[in-house]
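Q: I'm teaching a short session on how sequence maps to structure, and I want students to see two examples side by side rather than one. Could you give me a first protein with its sequence written out and its structure tokens following it? Keep the formatting plain so it prints cleanly on a handout.
A: Of course. Example one:
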Amino acid sequence: MLSYAVVGGSRGIGLEFVRQLSTVFAMLVRDKARSSYLASVVATASNHIHVLQADVVDHDSLMEDVSESRDMTAG
């Protein structure tokens, strides 16, 4: 299955990419709790958008998210 990960997807252009690209989507954000708009988009997405919290300068954090997104998308 084709999958995408968008860094900086909690608002603006990144969030619009999330809305349009895929039926199952993993999004990396620095702080899941900070964006009420992001929460509203995720709530209306019928479980197709998955928000993964990551720090893009923390390799271990990113590798955990890679593993989690592989599990979600079967590959």
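Q: Perfect. Now a second example for contrast.
A: Example two:
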Amino acid sequence: TPEMRNTSLQLQGPCYPVIYPSVNVFWSCQFIARPSNVSLQHWQQMGGVKINEGLEIDKAIHNEINSHSAVLKRYMADIGKAWPVLIVCGGILPLFLSVIWLLLIRHFVPGMPWITVALFNVLILSVTMFFYLKAGWIGNDAVTPIVGEHDPYIHVYGRELNHIRATAILMTIVTAFSILASIAIVRRILMATSV
């Protein structure tokens, strides 16, 4: 449609016209090859954004994708899509688990310190492994800004991947500290449960 063509010429998705090979990054057209003079001439004749050289189009796209308003818009869209998960995992599931926890405290008093320490360490270790998965350090499931199908040899990294990698490193430090603290309090737990 003419509307889709106009949004594409402003470097917004969908990627139309197909003058350059492109990939859909955060619903914006990210070009994966340097434009030739002929394709650049066609781009300008169609009314595309003014471009001086091959790198300028990349700079224009990156400035648009990384602007504060675009990042905030993406985060709000993610919250809008994930609201059922937030309600279940942030409200209903914790309420159910807290009732189970109270029942465990009532019926298994001597074992509760050990259950608490073991569950805490397993939980923090699994959260750390999740961040390692999403950072791409374990497996091939790294966070990517590319939307939909794309060539597997194209790698576009956004600032979100850097945030997840920094969080994975932070969680590694927190996990190591918590496991060492758990080992350090074993004697105190033994003294407390023997009373």
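Q: What should students look for in example two?
A: Point them to this: The chain has a mean pLDDT of 76. Also worth mentioning: The two ends are 77 Å apart (CA to CA).
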